TrEMBL record, chain A:
Species of origin: Reichenbachiella agariperforans
InterPro entries: RNA_pol_sigma-70-like, RNA_pol_sigma-70_dom, RNA_pol_sigma70_ECF_CS, RNA_pol_sigma70_r2, RNA_pol_sigma70_r4_t2, RNA_pol_sigma_r2, RNA_pol_sigma_r3/r4-like, WH-like_DNA-bd_sf
GO molecular function: DNA binding; sigma factor activity
Record protein name field: RNA polymerase sigma factor
Pfam families per the UniProt record, alphabetical: Sigma70_r2 (PF04542), Sigma70_r4_2 (PF08281)
Entry's family note: Belongs to the sigma-70 factor family. ECF subfamily.
Keywords (A to Z) from UniProt: DNA-binding, Sigma factor, Transcription, Transcription regulation
Keyword Cell membrane among record annotations: no
UniProt cross-references to NCBIfam families, sorted A to Z: sigma70-ECF (TIGR02937)
Phylogenetic placement of the source organism: Bacteria, Pseudomonadati, Bacteroidota, Cytophagia, Cytophagales
From TrEMBL, chain B:
Organism: Reichenbachiella agariperforans
Residue runs in coiled coils: 125-180
Transmembrane segments: 48-66
Protein name according to UniProt: Anti-sigma factor
Keyword entries, A-Z: Coiled coil, Membrane, Transmembrane, Transmembrane helix
Domain of life, source organism: Bacteria
Length: 196, 184
């Protein structure tokens, strides 16, 4: 009866602890267990590579960023307190690394500094829209727009989080996102004649 | 603000992740992790170095001292040629002692900055210093014996070498930590 009680409590703990579904793996990584490191790598490598790529737009550099991020994450796993999931912690490391690459390239223009332009919203039909077309159009966005757009739309951050990652205000994040969307519609229209 | 474009991307979200990591990616990570493990165990590594250095020194001293008894005839000849060896050794001693004191002070400063305190190193250096004092006493008893003088000089050189190597290691550690700090 006592044994069952303990097991049940452990089970409850596991069920109620949604904070990190890979809790056991992370604990093994804390002991620098190479197999556990590899398992976490396999779970996250692809998503992280794509996240990185959407910021740096160069596969080699995207891989370098991911490599550095994993090494850093495994090396400083002690700093991971489990407040968020391992995946979102790792993702922030990847995004910071990718943004640093952009900064180093000096391509990242000051997001606050972009001139206000009035965009006229065009009605666009998305019925026949394809993923590749959206990707191609996103790639054409200016860096400032693209990064806000990517963090919000693909990486699932809200404006508050986007603002803290990019060190901009929430309202800048909002207006950048709207402008990015308008610009994207325009690009889609020009590139694929999406105006019907 | 929801719109059709946003809905489209949210619905197709997984389709947008189409890049696959290359085979080399994990190898790179594993390689770097191995490298950093070595770095994190560096304190153990130089601890080992000092032990080897101390052993080498002890063997060297014993070797040289015992050789002195077997080939005393030869060394007497050499001693006869030496002019004022005790004066020479004093000059050499002054030179090296100063060098050792400087390096030692540098290392202690660096250790304080980095919070890496290697008691073993300081202890080993004290041991070497003690051996040197014994050699010095030995020299006082066996006036101007070249082998003892050589052992003494070798002792001094060894300490300078150890301290130089230690400084280099600490420099590397600091650089490594700085890089880490910049990256984070």
């Amino acid at each position: 009866m006592v044994v069952i009680g303990v097991e049940f409590r452990n089970f409850l703990e596991q069920v109620t602890n949604h904070k990190d579904i890979h809790f056991e793996l992370v604990e093994a990584v804390r002991r620098q267990d190479r197999t556990a490191q590899f398992e976490l790598y396999q779970l996250y490598a692809k998503a992280m590579l794509n996240t990185s790529y959407r910021i740096v737009y160069d596969q080699m550099e995207a891989e370098d960023v991911v490599q550095e991020a994993f090494v850093k994450a495994f090396g400083s796993i002690d700093q991971f307190r489990g407040d968020a999931s391992f995946g979102s912690w790792l993702k922030r490391i990847v995004i910071n690394g990718a943004l640093n690459v952009l900064k180093r390239r000096k391509e990242l223009m000051d997001i606050n500094d972009q001139n206000e332009e009035e965009w006229i919203e065009e009605p666009v039909s998305y019925d026949t829209l394809e993923v590749n077309q959206v990707k191609a159009a996103v790639a054409e966005l200016p860096d400032g727009f693209r990064i806000v757009f990517t963090l919000y739309m693909f990486e699932g951050y809200d404006h508050k989080e986007v603002a803290s990652i990019l060190n901009i205000t929430e309202s800048t994040s909002k207006s950048q996102l709207n402008r990015a969307k308008v610009k994207l519609r325009e690009l889609l229209k020009n590139m694929y004649n999406y105006e019907r | 603000m929801k719109d059709k474009l946003e809905d489209f991307i949210r619905e197709q979200r997984d389709e947008f992740d189409d890049l696959e990591p290359s085979e080399a990616l994990w190898r790179g990570i594993a390689g770097k992790l191995d490298g950093s493990e070595i770095k994190s165990k560096q304190s153990d590594r130089y601890m080992w170095l000092w032990k080897v250095a101390a052993v080498v020194f002890v063997c060297l001293s014993i070797g040289l001292l015992s050789e002195r008894y077997w080939t005393s005839g030869v060394s007497e000849e050499i001693v006869a040629v030496e002019e004022e060896p005790s004066e020479d050794i004093e000059r050499v001693e002054r030179y090296y002692s100063q060098l050792i004191a400087e390096r030692r002070a540098e290392i202690i400063i660096v250790m304080k900055q980095t919070d890496i305190v290697d008691d073993q190193l300081l202890h080993d250096l004290d041991d070497l210093d003690q051996m040197y004092q014994e050699l010095k006493m030995d020299l006082a008893q066996n006036q101007n014996n070249e082998k003892v003088i050589n052992a003494m000089i070798r002792n001094l050189q060894l300490r300078v070498e150890i301290l130089n190597k230690q400084l280099k290691i600490l420099d590397q550690l600091i650089k490594y930590e700085e890089n880490e700090a910049i990256n984070i």
